[in-house]
Amino acid sequence: MEAYVFDYGEWKLKKLPDPEAGPGEAVVSLKTAGLNRRDLYIPARRGNDREAVVIGSDGAGVVESVGEGVSAVRPGDEVIINPALRWFTKTGAPPEGFDILGMPDNGTMAGKIVISAEQLEPKPAHLSWVEAGVFALAGLTGYRALVTRGRLAPGETVFIPGAGSGVATFLIQFAKALGARVIVSSRSAKKRELALGIGADRAIGTEEDWQEALADETVDLVIDSIGEATFNRSFSVLKKGGRFVTFGATTDDHVDFNLREFFYGQFDLLGSTMGSREELRELLKLAEEEKIRPVIDSEYSLAQVGEAMEQLKESTQFGKIAIRIDD
What we know:
Blueprint: E1 2-7, E2 10-15, E3 25-35, H1 37-40, H2 42-46, E4 53-54, E5 58-66, E6 78-81, E7 84-85, E8 99-100, E9 112-116, E10 120-122, H3 129-133, H4 136-149, E11 157-161, H5 166-177, E12 181-186, H6 189-197, E13 202-205, H7 210-213, E14 219-224, H8 231-237, E15 238-246, H9 259-264, E16 268-271, H10 277-290, E17 296-301, H11 305-314, E18 320-324
Parallel strand pairs: 11-12, 11-14, 12-13, 14-15, 15-16, 17-18
Antiparallel strand pairs: 1-2, 1-4, 3-5, 3-9, 3-18, 5-6, 6-10, 7-8
Helix pairs in contact: 4-5
């Protein structure tokens, strides 16, 4: 099979042996995969002196074969990959042994993947293959941050800095489905317009004075994944006693903030990472009921993953970047 790999310091398309299912495992013939920002960080985290690892955390396809002891799925089943490995029940933090698919385990940018059958979920019927292939990582990350950690309630207002990421486009749709008011920010007028088009109630510019722009709003919850560039600005618009959830740091991951203002404000500061299988199943149910779909920015073939990664580096996308495996 062909696979897109990071191999001894080099990105390349490489022929690899077809995988075989062992006990408890299934082989999935992949139709689509999704690119995520974590794929860009593999060189720094893996180093240049190790053999090929197949990148990719998201994917969808058809079960080709199963190993001994597998009964939950069978050949011919249409499935999506749950990239949150070995995290099954909703807990306060990931359990020992948790990891994200796509390093150190081989990921989804390949013709096939062998994976524990426990990591497979039925493909939602309302999603196309392209939509299913980009759903799980960003969707699960956003759902846990918004619902489990953020405790969003109907009628509340949530502020999401950075409107164009895959997670942000899910957050907007989830929050609206749950009856909330949604405010986003972006430096791009086009992204602000697109965010309003998928349900955001208000979109402000990154360059604006946020306290002034949102003086007439009561922000109950902030979901931030940008880090140092927006952290204190986001806190400045959050109501006293409000909740602040952070799940990423696309700018500097070290921030300074006024501790006295924080504890006098009675804020809740919450971290979040990915989510459990239990939360993914809750999310899939919500998506089915509300017909929520990923926002697809662009599609590339497996041979074009390098081009797709360049687009992701530039952060020009609005929504998800999909990879067509079966071209």
